[in-house]
Amino acid sequence: RICVITLAEAHPLLQHGKTITSINYQISANCSRLQNKVSGKSKRVRLFRLGAQFLTELAPLCRISSSDGEEYTIYSCIRGRLIEVNENILSNPALLQEKPSTEGYIAVVLPKFEESKSITQGLLTQKEYEEVLLKRLNSSS
Length: 141
What we know:
It is found in: Cell projection, Dendrite; Cell projection, Growth cone; Cell projection, Lamellipodium; Nucleus speckle. The protein is an alpha+beta fold. It contains six helices and nine strands, in the order βαβββαββββααβαα. The protein has one domain (3-28, 46-139): CATH 2.40.50.100.
């Protein structure tokens, strides 16, 4: 029921061989995803008491800068509670590119229980995702 947020295979940072120079979880002057602290053995039970940040689909999670000067804002894309951010990518940004679906994850989000079924029903299969990418590629050519 948890969602692990990663870079999509088609993201420019993974496709164009860019070098990531920094990752910033500071979203605004008053909002840092690093300030989201959930602790204890039973993180799930404590989410609401410890104030895990609530995210909407359009909530920015972090900003990633590359050596060519481009900056990419990564959004949650899902409503739920922010369980954790991956602080390891701050000191080793290359993990985002080298191991994007494992150690290079960006964040973990826990959707509302009543919304989790509709979320999973709306997901694409790997084949459907590849078809979407192929259509994008063909339309931009």
